[in-house]
Design the sequence.
């Protein structure tokens, strides 16, 4: 199961660079890059800070990419 | 250019310190005591961060720094383990050398530098990513191969033939690593496989050289550095391209 994010799209919507978003949230630009590319799963705190900086709920910014195994495991009989 | 825009374009203090540390690591192959500057520049800020006196990192940079430290621990522990295994493997110090114990396999200097090398390479590959990180690491190693020329350029007359040969070899090695750097950047996946093949070929060739007990010590040190630089960057490139 993977965590996917829509940071890049919403950042573009607000015309923010990675550096701008990084400054708003108080992290390095490389950190934003790592999160956007899926190389780093942010902590809950950082996830909420990103959502607040982009003006949207966390659940719309991040979502779980469900795999087939997960669906089979939890599907009702 | 305004003062603010100049300040934004300059690297931060920790990156400047890091850069000084890396440059001194290169130059320490010519003048050993510069290694102290490297250790100071690279590790003192990390110690200050751990005790909470320096708060310039965010959660991701702290995480990759911890991971790089763990990698350094694993590799040097392996080297120490290999050193204790050395007598039963039939490895000995070069003739006339009274070294015993773990230093038989890797001279103390190699072991000390291994800590710094592994930490730097792991951190930089994680921070910049495999493609850009490999490019910069290989470029840096290429430049590092030029630093012994500084020492040999001061050779007294009568040794000019040896000096010329050494300088040509150093230039060749530098050109090879710089070429590999650009290959890794332009063609990451094939470049990664080429790095791995070169690593395997170099280690195999030097493994044969290591059968001579007089050569074991130095050869194993070179194998380690080849494995680290070519092998690790090669694996990082192949893995990242496989994921994308």
Sequence:
């Amino acid at each position: 199961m993977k965590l996917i994010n829509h940071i890049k799209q919403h950042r573009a919507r607000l015309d923010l660079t990675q550096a701008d978003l990084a400054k708003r949230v108080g992290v390095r630009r490389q950190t934003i890059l790592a999160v956007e590319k899926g190389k780093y799963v942010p902590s809950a705190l950082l996830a909420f800070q990103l959502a607040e900086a982009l003006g949207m709920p966390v659940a719309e910014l991040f979502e779980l990419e469900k795999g087939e195994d997960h669906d089979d495991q939890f599907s009702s009989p | 250019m305004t003062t603010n825009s100049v300040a934004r374009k300059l690297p931060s203090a920790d990156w400047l310190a890091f850069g000084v540390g890396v440059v001194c690591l290169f130059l320490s192959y010519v003048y050993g005591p510069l290694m102290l500057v490297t250790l100071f520049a690279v590790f003192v800020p990390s110690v200050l961060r751990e005790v909470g006196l320096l708060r310039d990192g965010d959660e991701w940079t702290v995480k990759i720094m911890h991971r790089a430290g763990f990698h350094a621990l694993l590799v040097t522990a392996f080297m120490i383990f290999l050193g204790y295994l050395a007598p039963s493997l039939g490895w000995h110090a070069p003739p006339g050398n009274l070294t015993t114990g773990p230093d038989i396999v890797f001279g103390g200097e190699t072991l000390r530098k291994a800590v710094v090398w592994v930490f730097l390479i792991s951190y930089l590959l994680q921070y910049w990513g495999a493609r850009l990180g490999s490019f910069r690491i290989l470029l840096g190693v290429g430049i590092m191969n030029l630093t012994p020329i500084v020492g040999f350029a001061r050779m007294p007359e009568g040794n000019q033939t040896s000096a010329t040969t050494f300088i040509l070899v150093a230039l060749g090695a530098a050109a090879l690593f710089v070429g590999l750097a650009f290959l890794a950047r332009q063609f990451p996946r094939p470049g990664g496989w080429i790095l791995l093949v070169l690593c395997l070929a170099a280690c195999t060739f030097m493994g044969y050289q290591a059968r001579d007990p007089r050569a074991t010590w130095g050869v194993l040190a070179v194998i380690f550095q080849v494995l680290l630089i070519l092998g690790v960057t090669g694996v990082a490139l192949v893995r990242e391209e496989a994921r994308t």
In short: Chain B has a mean pLDDT of 77. Chain B has ten helices and no strands. Chain B has two domains: 10-57, 61-243. The longest helix of chain B spans residues 59-89.
